[in-house]
Each structure stands twice: as C-alpha cells, then as structure tokens.
Design a protein that fits this description.
This protein has helices at 7-19, 136-142, 144-150, 167-180, 185-199, 214-220, 225-238, 287-294, 312-319, and strands at 25-29, 32-35, 38-55, 60-67, 74-81, 87-91, 95-104, 108-121, 123-124, 154-155, 160-162, 201-202, 222-223, 243-252, 255-265, 275-278, 297-298, 302-307, 323-326, 331-349, 351-353, 359-361. It has 362 residues and is of the alpha+beta class. It has a domain at 128-315: C8orf32 fold (Roll), CATH 3.10.620. The two termini are 35 Å apart. The longest helix is centred in the middle third of the chain and has 15 residues, at 185-199.
Length: 362
C-alpha cells in the first residue's frame, strides 16, 4: 500500500485526520479528564481501487489484489466489486480479497476495486491499568503459537523492516521492562508506547514513498505511520509480546487516506480475543494524551483492510500494489483512488478518563 499512497497531495488532510477529534483537554476536574467531543459512530460509503487505462498496440497482463474491508466494532453493510471478472481469495492466512488477473490485447479502461457501505464505531479498552491482562510469561506458556508467529523479524527481499533482534531495540525494550518491574503485558506495552511517543516524532516522507526499517526509524527518531508502527512492533516483539501491523484507511468526509497501525496481544479477554489496537502516528505533544486516545483505542475513522500474519509473505503483500506487464507498444497508466460518499456522523461523544484509570465515552 505504501507505493500507492498520495501523501504529497493529501499532507494537510492526513495531518488533519491524525489530529482530529479530541486532542485538546476540554476540562479537568481533579484527577478526572474530559476530552473534546468527537465522532464515535459513523456511516459512509467508500470506493477504492485502481483506474487503469490501456492504450497502444500489444498484449498486456494486469494483476491486482484488493483487500476487503472490516471493522472492530460495527458492520460491513455491503461489498460490491467494480469489475465482475474477479476471483475471491484469502491471502496471508486470513485476509479476504477480490483478485483480478486480466490478460488482454485490446485497448480498454478498467475500473478495479471495491465499493462498500460501512457502519463503524470507536472501539476502546476501558481499563488503562490492564488488570485482566496476562503476564508475558503466561502468554509464552499459554499461547506459544502466537509467540512463535508474532515475535519474529519480517523482511522483504532486501530489508528487515520489523527487527526484534536489533541489539539497540532489544536493550531499550529490556530496560523499560526491567524498570517497570511488572510482567503485565498491557502495562509493559503501554510503557513501550510511552517511550515511542517521548522519543520519536511523526513525519511524512515528502517526495518519497520509501518505507523505513525499524532500525532506521530508531536512529533518525522520525517516521510516518508505517515506520513508527514497525519500530513499536519490534520493541514489543523483542521482549516476547506478540504484535502485528494493520493496514487500512483513515476516513473522513469525501476522503480516505491509506494508513497503518498496530495490534498487541495481551490476552486476558481484553480487546478482541486478547488483541488491543495501538495508533502510533498520533501527533499530540502530550504523552498522556497519546496514551489516553491512541493506546487500546481504534477510532471510528479507522477502516481495516489487511491484518499481518507475521510472515515475510504478509509484509511483502502489504507493501505491494497493482502490477502489470506490457508487450509491443502497449502503454498502461494506473491511478489509485479512494473516495468517501454519504458520510454521516451517527454519534459523538466525549472521552473521559476517571481517577481510577477507567476511560469511557459519554
């Protein structure tokens, strides 16, 4: 997805989406904090995919796998493929896709993609203290398959992007873990997130779509949503906490921006089957605000498309886009587009954190 983003044209909109909602404290009463009201339930129709224009003379082949959408809370009301010449497939273990393999010799315009109507609610883990979370030792004992699957390095043919074996990353995570003096996976993951927000800054790669490795992001202390997510995943994995990346969109009226975030496995019936969402690309200058709003929360503006299965194949698929081959004088132009229509805010709420570290929407 990295190759298809139009970050340069959408920088202002993207930053607006990242910082939208409740970043500023509306009121503070003792130890109780209330943030500004923001959408927590939205309904919209989204269309995304490629418009492909084939001109000239000669044969060509087009391959495109389009992820089907999903939400943590809410429902997918409909999914319609723009072109019916697709096959349905599952890739990287559990990702549903519409797949096109077009072999032709005639000039044509192809509309390859999906239109879906979606009802989405914000999802949160209410207890910021993670009282029911498992310890790291319990996760290793009770979920060895998840530990094996989601604590390894991941790379493409040339670069290790998620690297829990990087010695500097290992040392940072181990020191944070030892200083916390707790094995609670939720609390450890939260402290790793605190370090991420204290140490790094969100920054778009202007004029470049290159994804940074975790080690590169650690060294330069800046990165976009992919980069910061890969670094955070590497930190978690280096001390045995399963973590994976999620790809999708940030959605607002009229526009959807390709995005990436993280899920961390803490078990204990917390989150969805033990997985909690973590948004690494927030831009608040206040670390506690980042924790309150982005750790264990997936806002209604997040739309999921792809869930990592921990393999190199999964990483490669998530970084890929449409591919095509041409013969003769054939020319192909492929343009990615994502559009949101019929956007309706169904509910708005304030985020409240009480004196016991319990948060809720009111």
């Amino acid at each position: 997805m990295k190759k298809i983003t139009k970050f340069i044209g959408f920088i202002f909109v993207f930053i607006t989406l990242i910082t939208a909602g409740c970043l500023d404290i509306f009121s503070s009463d003792g130890n109780k904090i209330t943030y500004e009201s923001h959408p927590t339930s939205i309904l919209y129709t989204i269309s995304y995919g490629y418009l492909v224009n084939c001109t000239g003379i000669g044969n060509y082949e087009i391959n495109y796998n389009c992820d089907e959408p999903e939400v943590l809370s809410g429902s997918i009301l409909s999914i319609i493929a723009h072109d019916n010449n697709y096959t349905s497939k599952i890739m990287a273990t559990f990702n549903k896709m519409k797949a096109w393999n077009i072999r032709e010799g005639i000039s044509n315009e192809w509309d390859l993609g999906i239109t879906s109507t979606i009802s989405c609610n914000s999802f949160l883990v209410s207890d910021l203290e993670g009282k029911n979370a498992l310890t790291i030792s319990e996760i290793k004992q009770d979920y060895p398959d998840k530990v094996l699957q989601y604590t390894q390095a991941q790379s493409n043919e040339t670069t290790v992007f998620i690297n829990p074996n990087n010695l500097e990353i290992v040392n940072i995570a181990s020191n944070i873990y030892n200083e916390l003096n707790s094995e609670n996976a939720f609390l450890v993951a939260k402290e790793l997130f605190r370090w991420l927000k204290q140490t790094t800054n969100y920054q778009i790669h202007i004029g470049s779509n290159i994804v940074q490795s975790a080690g590169t992001t650690l060294n330069c202390k800046t990165g976009d949503c992919d980069d910061l997510s890969f670094l955070y995943i590497s930190l978690c994995r280096s001390i045995g906490i399963p973590a994976r990346f999620i790809r999708g969109f940030l959605v607002e009226e009229n526009i959807a921006i390709p995005h990436a975030w993280v899920e961390v496995f803490v078990g204990g019936g917390i989150g969805i089957n033990g997985w909690i969402p973590v948004e690494c690309a927030g831009t608040s200058s206040k670390v506690d605000t980042e924790i309150h709003q982005n750790f264990g929360i997936e806002s209604s503006e997040h739309l999921r498309l792809f869930e990592d299965d921990g393999s190199n194949e999964s990483l490669i698929i998530s970084l890929s886009a449409i591919t095509y081959s041409t013969y003769g004088t054939r020319k192909i132009e492929a343009e990615f587009n994502a559009e949101v229509t019929s956007y309706t805010i169904a509910k708005t709420n304030q985020l409240v954190i009480d004196e016991n570290g319990i948060r809720q929407y009111t």
